[in-house]
Amino acid sequence: MVKSEGRAGYSFDQFNIVLAGRFDGLSKQLKKIARFILDNPVDTALDTAADIANRLEVQPSSLIRFAQALDFEGFSEIQKIFRNNLLQQLPGYSANYSDRIQKLKEGASEGGDGVHPILNVFLEANRDALAGLQSEVSVARLDEAIDMIKAASNVYILGQRRSFPVASYLYYMMRNMEMRAFLLDGVGGNLTEQARLISEGDVLVVATFPNYADEVIGVAKQARDSGAKVIAMTDKLVSPIVKLSDSYFLTDKVTVSGFRTVTGTMCLAQALAIGLGFDGEQIVAK
């Protein structure tokens, strides 16, 4: 086992890389714990291990086994990583920041006069999502995806449930650019049949978030088997779509009481779509 000071000093990104590498080898119960802590980073940072175990309906010892499976000595070391990550998310951090996070959890975020508390909670969450997008998406990764789409014979776009608005927007923009783009909407239960059109030389752009729809993952597998490229928008490295993709973006990791933001993914879709219409030109915000 790696010494405590080795893993405990990891950043949140390093933790995610370790977890992604070990995820497939975890038991069903430990995978359940992994998904929970990644979907609920604030709760993981601030709740007690006993509270988390109670919510997951597992024994506290299961959290210890989970930590040890990743070469940590205990679950508290993982919680420390999550706490440090939270403390670094907002500029102007002060000693009262933990209190602010707790208030956000309880739906009583600080706000200016005239701002509804619920609106302010989501304003803060979406600002965090956009800040995360800025740090996650590199110039090289975005350019790679744009070049991949430009080189494709056909572009198929897929997003179900809360991801559908992103897919619909991309389809709308690409069709306005007279690209051979096709929206896999699955109307009438025909998603599998629509996906059979995907072939070598094509690109599938897919957005999926917990609880990753089985039919979406199935289409991605089908696309890969046909020789097409896959570009994914998802939330974390352990997402099942990551291993099926040729290029991926991690967006919208922020949740508020179980409601996931979509602002980061939509912003990424805008950048991707507009980037397809520019050849070496620079967009200057005015």
Strand order of the largest sheet: 2-1-3-4-5
Report the structural category: alpha/beta
Pattern of helices and strands: HHHHHHHHHHEHEHEHEEEEH
Main pleated sheet: 5 strands, parallel
Number of strands: 7
On the 0-100 scale, what is the average pLDDT? 82
**First-residue to last-residue Cα separation:** 54 Å
Fraction in helix: 40-55%
- Strand percentage lies at 5-15%
pLDDT under 50 segments (min length 5)? 1-5, 90-97, 282-286
The coarse overall form would be globular
Characterization of this structure:
The chain is α/β, with parallel strands linked by helices and 286 residues long. The chain contains 14 helices and seven strands. The protein has a five-stranded parallel β-sheet, sandwiched between helices. The chain has a two-stranded antiparallel ribbon with strand order 6-7. β6 (255-256) and β7 (259-260) form a beta hairpin. The radius of gyration is 20 Å and the shape is globular.
Key attributes of the depicted protein:
single chain; disordered N terminus; two-stranded antiparallel sheet; 14 helices; alpha/beta; 286 residues; globular; disordered C terminus
Write the SSE topology:
Blueprint: H1 4-8, H2 12-22, H3 28-39, H4 41-46, H5 49-56, H6 60-69, H7 75-87, H8 97-105, H9 117-136, H10 139-150, E1 155-159, H11 164-176, E2 181-183, H12 191-195, E3 203-207, H13 214-225, E4 229-234, E5 247-250, E6 255-256, E7 259-260, H14 263-276
Parallel strand pairs: 1-2, 1-3, 3-4, 4-5
Antiparallel strand pairs: 6-7
